[in-house]
Amino acid sequence: MDTVILDTDPEAAQPKTLTVWVSRNGYIGPDESTARYDGSTHRKCECGELTEKHWISCKRCRDKADSERYFKMPTKEWDGKTPLVIYNTDHYFFDDDALFIYCESHNVKEADLPLVVCDPVYANEIDPNEYYEGELPEDGEVPDEIQAAFDEMNRKIKEYKEPLCWVQGKFRAILEG
Asked: What pTM was computed for the model?
């Protein structure tokens, strides 16, 4: 016969003292570092400056690292047609005029902008079995009629040569002049 332990038996449970950490925000947890993070507003950057807690480094160090990454990028002469973007921003230029207007309105020279040649993003073909993965039974496939429609659409996608959009590429732009 199995041992019987009643809820009134001292063997059923015993009091223990546990250490928990409570942040100033009321977070209760078993580890000090998580509670301290939750209760903090800032941290120190490795340079010694304060930064908001969600950043590992301060703005000056992040900007310096960003600049170093930019200048380590290989260069490519701009063809005058491919869009450009200011490094790590959403400031895109689709022609010379837009770049000129930006420089005039921001009182900056083109040569002083960290410009990157953009890469095109094209439409991808669609796999109907992947598209309907959650709706198909295990090892099921889409019906032939639907597969034929996807085949036609994928043929048109392959023929479509225009980019859907442009994204920051891997080359620093070299502008003539």
From this structure: 0.72
Residue type for 112, please? D
| Residue among 71, 83, 106 nearest 168 (CA) | 83
State how far the Cα of 92 lies from the Cα of 134, in Å rounded to an integer: 38
Q: How many CA atoms lie within 13 A of 114 on its CB side?
A: 17
Nearest by Cα to 49 from 67, 63, 68, 34 = 63
Query: What whole-number distance in Å separates Cα of residue 23 and Cα of residue 37?
Result: 8
| Residues 52 and 61 sit within 8 Å (Cβ to Cβ) | no
The four Cα atoms 23, 29, 30, 33 give a dihedral, to 10 degrees, of -50
- Helix (H, G, I), strand (E, B), or coil: what is residue 50? strand
Q: What is the pLDDT of residues 116-170, one digit of tens each?
A: 999 999 999 999 888 888 888 888 888 899 999 999 999 999 999 999 999 999 9
